[in-house]
């Protein structure tokens, strides 16, 4: 994985990372299930993927927003495919902090140029 940036969110225990991976970066559901494991949740099946995702429009085309919450932790991820790579913007940490910064995080990911 190519970690391009990492920083803490203001006012609490949460951070943002930016990564770029080749192709689809391993696939949507496998990534969601990996992230669910990071915050103490069990895997989901294909039908449940649509319950935690929504489409977003980015500066470089369509992307997917993932929103997962459990065990006082929340994870937001925006995945943007562009020119054979997938860009992953991930915010993870204390539910309150990640939730409070949700709109700013999504706007950051949506407006980034690749």
Please work out how many helical segments DSSP would assign: 3
What topology, given as strand order, has the largest sheet?
1-2-6-5-4-3
The poorly predicted ranges are none
The rough form would be described as globular
What series of H and E elements makes up the topology?
EEHEEEEHH
Report the C-alpha radius of gyration, rounded: 13 Å
The helix fraction, in percent, is: 10-25%
- The share of residues in extended strands comes to over 45%
Structure classification: alpha+beta
Instruction: Tally the beta strands.
Output: 6
Mean pLDDT: 95
Distance between the termini: 16 Å
Largest sheet: 6 strands, antiparallel
Task: Give a description of the structure.
By secondary structure, this protein is α+β, with helices and mostly antiparallel strands. Helices cover 24% and strands 46% of the residues. It has 3 helices and 6 strands. It has a 6-stranded antiparallel β-sheet with strand order 1-2-6-5-4-3, with helices on both faces. Strand 3 (53-58) and strand 4 form a beta hairpin. The longest helix has 11 residues, at 28-38. It is globular and about 35 Å long. It starts with a strand and ends with a helix. The mean pLDDT is 95.
């Amino acid at each position: 994985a190519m970690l391009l940036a990492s920083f803490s969110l203001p006012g609490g225990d949460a951070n943002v990372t930016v990564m770029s991976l080749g192709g689809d970066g391993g696939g949507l559901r496998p990534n969601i299930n990996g992230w669910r494991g990071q915050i103490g949740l069990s895997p989901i099946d294909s039908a449940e993927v649509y319950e935690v995702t929504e489409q977003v429009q980015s500066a470089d085309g369509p992307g997917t927003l993932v929103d997962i919450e459990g065990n006082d932790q929340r994870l937001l991820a925006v995945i943007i495919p562009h020119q054979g790579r997938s860009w992953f913007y991930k915010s993870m940490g204390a539910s309150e902090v990640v939730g409070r910064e949700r709109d700013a995080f999504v706007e950051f990911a949506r407006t980034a140029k690749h």
